[in-house]
Write a structure and sequence with these properties.
Helices cover about 70% and strands about 0% of the residues. The protein is mainly α.
């Protein structure tokens, strides 16, 4: 930045200085920042109008054309009129014009329309324009559209553009930014399936995504696969990713091992490598070791010199230890080496001094930095001051700082709001907290890719308040904005899910549960249990059943009561397939059966015409030592004239030596005779005779007559003989008749 004159700032810094002496008084601080910011703003606006002599006319013309086309697309709905205007603006479409216009279009939908329009007007898309379109869709989180677009490239281009790793790398990164870790892995597996060889960029992207999620073991496996399966040679960037990932997971030893391995692969550590190690060590609290690493870096090679990032990282480490003397010494050493501290350096130091309550030193540093035009207080600076006021219990002064930000046109970010909202919640001032929360949602500040990445956990107190007071929908709106920034927090998922359950909207809670699982978070047993209970109360047992299956996949074991409640609701709702599936699942999981529920399930299957499924379910129950109320089922089938099914159940009962009602057997046999199913009637009678139960049957005469009428004389004689013989005579003659038809036993 160009040096700014001293005179306009001298008086303001004097006021600024006196403000700090009076315990960081807000009015003095804000007035000085106001004067400084206005001066910088006016100076910048004057400089922005200058045109350098080296600017060329042709590129400017192309940029103007692209800007004009993009402005037209952005400000008007897509229509025939817009398309005609575009054709007038650019009669011939060059590659540069198309690419620049695509980059300037604000929405992915309109970018897609423009992409198709230029193709329809004679422009032939190439690898670069296809890649840019994937990037646009990915950045806007239209991930399904991006994925479908990738797989349509070869067809759209007529085979001119082949699917290469570049397209898939973009998809992998986009899924990673969105927090969809598993989807990134799926894209990588798809590459292998369709024969697209991954490059070092592919592996670097995947390793970065894995390690950001703390998946160190998976990253090790992927690194081995990269070397041994694909033979891809890692580069310095690969090692920087690995070292940072392991250091961020407090695995410093592994980070140093990887640092030494670089030499084996002829990868020279660069300043980023050293900065990564230093950052990891500082995060682990090993600031002295980190300082020694920097000293060793200086000695190793003249070309390896610490940069602003190196010093800023060390300063942050010492600030975290509240060793402000060493932090200030490093700051002076940095300036002495000719390195210009950046806004992060200043804000880091200011934050450390705020936490150490060395406010006079803040005045001294800002006086020099702002006076020389080296530092413009920004959102982070204001956030630090707001947090300092909140920490000292001066909430109203924090709000004064917040209001001054608006006056100075310095935009608050997610951190600004989270500090204020959290402190309001701590004071139980939920009304004002909700007002700030509403403002945050309306302005969609969380969706702005500026400032620090928002932390979901910072909003948990207000989420809990809203979700426990019937305002879950409001909380979810902000929560989804956070998810779009690729941030998530399991407790926040749970809070929102339980809020929906309590408000009678469990379907919305289920959607969040699915999103939670897709992002590789595991809901706890309480969340699943309340979700199932709420869905059952809402009358949606099918979704409750689906939730139960997800609960089991999450390695939770629901109580027997939960299984029985879902099964009862499924049966009441007439969900035959789902009921049978749940009974089977219960048997596989060795969940105790309820005889009434089992009987009702089988009856529902018969009622739904699923006779094979019904009989199979009975078989599974008996194999596992459970029973059904067979007489109740047979009676139900007889009432519905399903006599063949009833006969099959009775034969099954006899085979299992289960007690059955003889009068019911007589009714079934008589009914089969009337229905001209005499072979089946005789088959049941024969099994009853084998059990010595024929003497109590009242249907024997009807059976004999029906058999004779059907010409089955041997069977008729067999029945007649049993009618006249006693039990002892039957026991002495077990050979039986030569029957012409015999039903297979089940």
């Amino acid at each position: 930045m160009a040096c700014i004159g001293h005179s306009p700032l001298t008086s303001s810094m004097n006021r600024f200085s006196s403000g700090l002496r009076s315990n960081l008084n807000s009015s003095y601080l804000l007035n000085s920042l106001s004067i400084h910011t206005q001066f910088i703003s006016s100076n910048s606006s004057r400089q922005s109008n200058k045109i350098t002599p080296n600017e060329k006319t042709k590129p400017v013309t192309k940029t103007k054309r692209s800007r004009a086309m993009a402005r037209l697309i952005n400000t008007k709905p897509w229509s025939d009129e817009v398309q005609s205007s575009l054709a007038e603006l650019s009669p011939s479409l060059s590659k540069t014009t198309v690419l620049q216009t695509l980059q300037l279009i604000r929405t992915p939908d309109k970018a897609s329309l423009f992409f198709r329009w230029v193709e329809a007007n004679g422009f032939t898309h190439n690898e670069q324009s296809y890649f840019l379109m994937i990037e646009i869709l990915g950045r806007s989180r239209n991930l399904n559209a991006a994925r479908n677009f990738v797989f349509s490239i070869e067809k759209k281009s007529g085979g001119a553009v082949k699917l290469g790793d570049r397209f898939f790398n973009s998809l992998i990164r986009s899924y990673g930014w969105a927090g969809l870790f598993q989807e990134s892995i799926k894209v990588f597996r798809t590459m292998k399936e369709i024969g697209v060889s991954p490059s070092v960029v592919t592996f670097n992207s995947l390793l970065s995504i894995m390690l950001k999620r703390g998946r160190t073991s998976m990253a090790k496996q992927l690194f081995d696969e990269m070397l041994n399966t694909y033979g891809v040679t890692p580069d310095t960037y690969t090692f920087n990713i690995l070292i940072r990932g392991f250091c961020m997971s407090s695995m410093i030893d592994e980070g140093f091992w990887l640092f030494k391995e670089m030499e084996h692969f002829k990868c020279e550590p660069d300043v980023i490598t050293y900065n990564t190690l230093v950052d990891g060590l500082c995060r682990a609290g090993k600031v002295k070791i980190a300082h020694n690493v920097v000293k060793g870096m200086i000695k190793k090679s003249p070309s390896l010199t610490p940069n602003v990032v190196t010093y800023t990282t060390l300063i942050r480490g010492y600030c975290a230890k509240q060793d402000m003397m060493e932090a200030l010494n490093l700051f002076e050493e940095m300036v002495g080496r000719g390195l210009k501290p950046n806004r992060i350096t200043y804000n880091t130091l200011i934050q450390g001094l705020c936490e150490a309550k060395q406010l006079d030193k803040i005045k001294e540093i800002l006086e020099g930095a702002v006076g020389e035009g080296e530092f413009i207080p920004d959102t982070c600076t204001f956030n630090t001051l707001i947090k300092a006021h909140c920490t000292m219990g001066k909430l109203e002064e924090a709000f004064s700082v917040f209001e001054k930000m608006s006056e100075l046109r310095i935009h608050p970010d997610s951190a600004t709001y989270s500090v204020l909202i959290r402190n309001l919640c701590q004071r139980r001032d939920f009304r004002r907290a909700e007002e700030f929360f509403d403002e945050l949602a309306e302005k969609e500040i969380l969706l702005h890719d500026v400032g620090c990445k928002p932390l979901v956990a910072a909003y948990n107190p207000v989420f809990e308040y809203l979700c426990s007071n019937g305002k879950t929908k409001k909380a979810e709106r902000v929560f989804r904005q956070l998810m779009k920034r690729g941030t998530q927090d399991p407790p926040s998922y749970k809070t929102s899910i339980l809020g929906h359950c309590n408000e009678g909207t469990p379907e919305a809670g289920f959607d969040l549960l699915v999103l939670m699982l897709r992002r590789d978070f595991v809901p706890d047993a309480e969340t699943y249990g309340l979700m199932i209970d709420s869905l059952l109360k809402k009358g949606d047992p099918v979704l409750a059943h689906t939730t139960l299956e997800k609960m089991l996949k999450s390695s939770h074991l629901p109580t027997t009561a939960i299984f029985h409640s879902i099964l009862a609701a499924l049966v009441d709702k007439g969900c035959a397939h789902e009921s049978a599936s749940l009974v089977k699942l219960m048997l596989e999981r060795r969940i105790r059966q309820n005889i009434d529920l089992s009987t009702h399930t089988v009856r529902l299957l018969y009622k739904s015409g699923l006779r094979d499924n019904a009989f199979m379910t009975i078989g599974l129950l008996y194999e596992n030592g459970y029973l059904v109320k067979m007489e109740e089922l047979v009676s139900f089938l007889c009432q519905r004239s399903k006599l063949l099914d009833a006969q099959k159940l009775l034969l099954f009962s006899l085979e299992k030596c289960q007690s059955i009602d003889v009068d019911m057997c007589s009714s079934v046999i008589s009914g089969l005779c009337k229905a001209h199913e005499v072979s089946e009637a005789f088959a049941l009678y024969y099994e009853l005779v084998e059990k010595g139960m024929q003497q109590r049957l009242t249907c024997q005469e009807d059976l004999r007559i029906s058999l004779e009428a059907e010409g089955k004389l041997n069977e008729a004689k067999f029945v007649l003989k049993r009618m006249t013989e006693g039990p002892k005579q039957w026991q002495s003659d077990r050979s039986g008749p030569k029957v012409s038809s015999r039903m297979e036993r089940p």
